[in-house]
From TrEMBL:
Keywords: Membrane, Plasmid, Transmembrane, Transmembrane helix. Belongs to the EamA transporter family. It comes from the Bacteria. The chain crosses the membrane at residues 20-37, 43-62, 74-94, 100-123, 130-149, 155-172, 184-202, 214-234, 246-265, 271-289. It is found in: Membrane. It comes from Mycobacterium lentiflavum. This is DMT family transporter. It holds the Pfam family EamA.
Amino acid sequence: MADASVVSARLRPPRPGRMLIVTAGWGACFVGIRYGLVDAPILWFAALRALLAGGVLLAVGWCGRRPAPPRSAWPGIVVLGLVNVSVAFAAMFAGTAGVAGGVAAVLSNAQPVLIVLPAWLLYGERPRPRAMAGLVVGFLGLIVAAIPAGTGSGALSALAASVAITASTLLARRLGAGVDVVMFSAWQLVCGGIALASWAAAVEGVPAVSWTPHFVAALLFLALASTALPYMIWFSELQRAPLVTLSAWTILTPVFGVAFSWVLLNDRLTEMQGIGLCLVLAAMPIILLPHRHADTGN
């Protein structure tokens, strides 16, 4: 625990510009999934997203002559790929395919709440009272925004995705140290994508994908803007930022999701959803300010 406390003391707040890219990309992915599921089955679509994103990052890494992960890191990378990609992507796509309602969207972004106790126990990152208050306000805002939509059939799948993402965040903090972030991001996507493709072949059989321009555009957007770039940034920030503060940024993911759905899918924004999203936005400075004050005192 002493070592974890020393590491925790050296952490710095996430960089806002980078986190906005991450949360906007992840928020937009639900729109891309809804577009693409018209032309592809759930598991094959999820596998294609992971494999294409991982392949692009591998190409970037090889062209830049970035170092491959050491042998000792490979077991962890495989496990991370299974949890963060195979399980999380499958659950996320299944929840969206089941027309998941607002509560499912809340559950899929429950990581800020789920990670508090494990981050404290495993890494000595004791949550600050003000940050906890901000998390409560933010999560309450998500619930208020979700009420008009009902529970939806994808709630359990969304919760499974959130648990898997939380577990992978905790695992990646330990595994990613000393490993090139591009290659680390690439290989966990490739490993998870291979497992997803095997799962898809066993469950869905030969991939019945309609390679329409509509589907290709959705797949490229998901793989590049919603996966490759956000994951590379996320794993980079994960090695330098407190887990609770970093995860708190994901509260903005459904805010972007609602905004993109409103603009691109003509989904109506209700008064309750507007109030909920305002609560989420109000929670962010409550969560982030304590860490800034702490940094100025170092």
